[in-house]
Specification:
Number of helices: 8
Number of strands: 13
Structural class: alpha+beta
Helix content: 25-40%
Order of helices and strands: HEHEHEEEEEEEHEHEEHHEH
CATH architecture: 4-Layer Sandwich
Distance between the termini: 45 Å
Shape: globular
CATH topology: Deoxyribonuclease I, Chain A
Number of domains: 1
Largest sheet: 6 strands, mixed
Radius of gyration: 19 Å
Oligomer: single chain
Strand order of the largest sheet: 3-4-2-1-13-12
CATH class: Alpha Beta
Length: 316
């Protein structure tokens, strides 16, 4: 990562941020052995211009991981380009086009990744809601406000597909639950599809689910998706850390893949600590448009699974 010749104020802010990152206890990843993944809703990233300081802070946070699913990436990719420049020449991005209507909110979904740690395998596609024939047209019963996005990757001996989503907030919990249930059905159909590129699916993003006891959580886990053990505790991703809006989920095909390392990265702490990053001071609301109103949720994956694959061959 190359922050270059930043101002003394930004340098001081970066040092304060590094202390907050250190508190998250994110273990280093090891080439062909482990991979650090994360999901982060970066509030209106590309709509509200980031200051120079905020761009450096966003890059510093993203650089702690090898693969990140980004939510609320907007139509203007200028700030993403600024961040990728700081991250360095080994970083890549793959993303959707924006959706211009009110439900789409001019948002994209995307992944950024360090090609030294993970390789893009070629698949990148939207998840389309199931359609039925009505007259001469094929139309979905329920739409995704923002189409979920998936891409295939490889790290070590682990090939996998990661899907990220931003579920509607909407004006009713039932409409949100229905969209989540349709997505859960789509994911299950993809998993059992005979010609599927890979059976190892990691599902992440902003589901707007307040807790794991909520019916919305039951909707996404209806076919067996699970929270990795490392994330079973109280890992809220709003700034107060009391809501589980963001999720990382998986089918436990290789349970050993998911280590006991995971959590949220708290770059906020509380209102009193905003001045450490932005010495001029700002309200909490403005702070969320410079960094975000969501914290990154992360976990580490074991990617050296040759032994597990051989055991499965022996066991038939």
């Amino acid at each position: 990562m190359d922050h270059g010749k930043v101002s003394p104020a930004i340098a001081k802010g970066l040092l304060a941020l590094k202390e907050r990152i250190k508190a998250a206890k994110i273990p280093s990843s090891k080439l062909d052995e482990t991979l650090n993944i994360a999901t982060w809703n970066i509030r209106e990233f590309g709509k509200t211009p980031r200051t120079e300081a905020a761009v450096h802070y966003v890059a510093e946070i993203l650089g702690q991981f090898d693969l990140v699913g980004i939510v609320e990436l907007r139509d203007n990719l200028g700030d993403l380009g600024r961040v990728l420049k700081i991250l360095g020449p080994t970083w890549r991005a793959v993303y959707l086009d924006m959706i211009p209507d009110a439900a789409g909110n001019r948002e994209r979904l995307g992944f950024i990744y360090d090609k030294r740690a993970v390789t893009f395998n070629g698949l990148a596609a939207e998840a389309n809601a199931p359609r039925a024939k009505k007259g001469v047209e094929y139309l979905p019963e329920t739409s995704f406000w923002r189409s979920p996005y998936m891409a295939s990757f490889r790290s070590g001996s682990f090939d996998f597909i990661v899907l990220t989503t931003h579920i509607r907030w909407g004006d009713s919990d039932e409409a949100r639950r229905k969209e989540i249930a349709v997505l859960a059905d789509w994911i299950e159909a993809k998993r059992i599809e005979k010609t599927s590129e890979d059976k190892d699916l990691i599902v992440m993003g902003d589901f707007n689910i307040p807790s794991r006891t909520d019916p919305l959580f039951a909707a996404i886990t209806r076919h067996g998706l699970q929270v990795p053990k490392a994330l079973l505790g109280a890992h809220g991703t709003n700034l107060e850390k009391d809501k589980r809006y963001d999720q990382i989920l998986h089918y436990p095909i290789y349970p050993e893949n998911f280590t006991n390392a995971g959590g949220e990265l708290d770059f906020y702490i509380d209102d009193a600590h905003i001045k450490q990053l932005f010495p001029g001071g700002m309200t909490k609301g403005k702070f969320t448009y410079q960094l975000s109103d969501h914290l990154p949720l992360w976990m580490q994956i074991n990617t050296d699974i040759d032994g597990q694959k051989l055991e499965q061959i022996i066991q038939g």
